[in-house]
Amino acid sequence: MALLEVKQLVTEFHTDDGVARALDHVSFSLERGKVLGIVGESGSGKSVTAFSLMNLVEKPGRVSGGEILFKGEDLRLASAKRWGQLRGDRIAMVFQDPMMSLNPVMRIGAQLAETVAIHSKATRAEIEQRVFEALQRVGIPAPRERMRAYPHELSGGMRQRVAIANAIINRPDLIIADEPTTALDVTIQAQILYEMKQLARASGTALIWITHDISVVKDLADEVCVMYAGRIIERGPVAQIIHAPRHPYTRGLLDALPRAGSPGKRLYAIPGATPPLLALPPGCAFAPRCGHATRACTAIPPVFEQGGREHRCFFPLG
């Protein structure tokens, strides 16, 4: 049985101008120790997926349909008390801005210790040792010294490592990382990506890594979901999708990456922009930007399955 199964998930935002469907029947699954990448432009539904899985969607938004099965339990039916038991213990989240999860007036060690104390009856000495080990695992030098520091005394990369340490300290079954390395330089980003992959392999923790940069998931994820306008338009093993994408949007994301050996060459850009959710075109939402679109694309493409992969396109590539 998969650790996480998301089935036909629908999340909507009710506004004065109408209902914006941010997630439109999103489905995927994830096994223990595996890494799932979720990729797409801003506004594609990536972060809404993360917040929906964590039951953190605030009004006027709400999860209005589908199932979120975590170890067989439908989290859509979970009470506030149950969510208090799950968050930070069995399911953890790393935000893009580490200050969203760090208290600026508490020392680093005290914050991580609080995460452990809420969910266990460990002694003070045991908690301090777990805090030390968590900081050590994410590559923070001089962990004992950093435990006494405040968040503002650390660099952005260090703060993000602390946020990751806070997520892994209770050895959760699932970590959801919402673009946690976007603001970091490429060297620090590479280190964190390596450490997170090693964590998933060593501990059996499943990881959902959300990013707008498809190159990030190339060496990190086992499987990737490509999202556009609230729908998963392509899903499958990351190596296959990187080397032989079937959806024109996925091809466009890959073509927009800089290539080694071609300095000064103008980068490709997908024409147009992601449509607003309250004014989606009929049928395939990507059709107005797609060079392969025909009249058939005025209907919503179903999910086509082939060779362990899925795509939503009437005219797949390859």
From TrEMBL:
Location relative to the cell: Cell inner membrane
Domain ABC transporter: 4-254
Keywords on record: ATP-binding, Cell membrane, Membrane, Nucleotide-binding, Transport
TM helices/strands, residue ranges: none
Membrane among keywords: yes
Alphabetized GO MF terms: ATP binding; ATP hydrolysis activity
InterPro entries for this protein: AAA+_ATPase, ABC_Ni/Peptide_Import, ABC_transporter-like_ATP-bd, ABC_transporter-like_CS, Oligopep_ABC_C, P-loop_NTPase
Origin: domain of life: Bacteria
GO cellular component: plasma membrane
PROSITE patterns, alphabetized: ABC_TRANSPORTER_1, ABC_TRANSPORTER_2
Membrane topology (UniProt): Peripheral membrane protein
Any one GO biological process: peptide transport
Family statement: Belongs to the ABC transporter superfamily.
Record-given protein name: Peptide/nickel transport system ATP-binding protein
High-level lineage: Bacteria, Pseudomonadati, Pseudomonadota, Betaproteobacteria, Burkholderiales
